[in-house]
């Protein structure tokens, strides 16, 4: 089994990760909402559209 963060071989102590570092990276993605489960519920779509309308554009 390979680590889902870096693809190295996993270590039993940190499974499914290879190290504490990769486990922490994954946890950070969850806590910062880097992962999301898509929803097609109408109320979720309405909320997302409202948030987009209220978010100022990002200058590059």
Commentary on this structure:
The chain is mainly α. It has one domain (12-54). Helices cover 42% and strands 0% of the residues. It has helices at 20-31, 42-54. The protein is elongated, with a radius of gyration of 17 Å. The mean pLDDT is 88.
Quick gist of this model?
Its cofactor is Zn(2+). Interacts with GyrB. The protein is 42% helix and 0% strand.
For this entry, give a set of tags.
60 residues, single chain
Fold blueprint:
Layout: H1 20-31, H2 42-54
N-C termini distance: 40 Å
Which range does the strand content fall in? under 5%
Query: What is the H-and-E element order?
Result: HH
Supply the number of structural domains: 1
Level of helix content? 40-55%
Oligomer: single chain
Q: What structural class do helix, strand and pairing data support?
A: mainly alpha
Estimated radius of gyration? 17 Å
Indicate the low-confidence ranges by residue numbers. Answer: none
Kindly report the average pLDDT value: 88
Largest sheet: none
Number of helices: 2
* Number of DSSP E strands: 0
Shape: elongated
Pfam family, one: YacG
Subunit structure: Interacts with GyrB.
InterPro entries: DNA_gyrase_inhibitor_YacG, Znf_NHR/GATA
Protein name: DNA gyrase inhibitor YacG
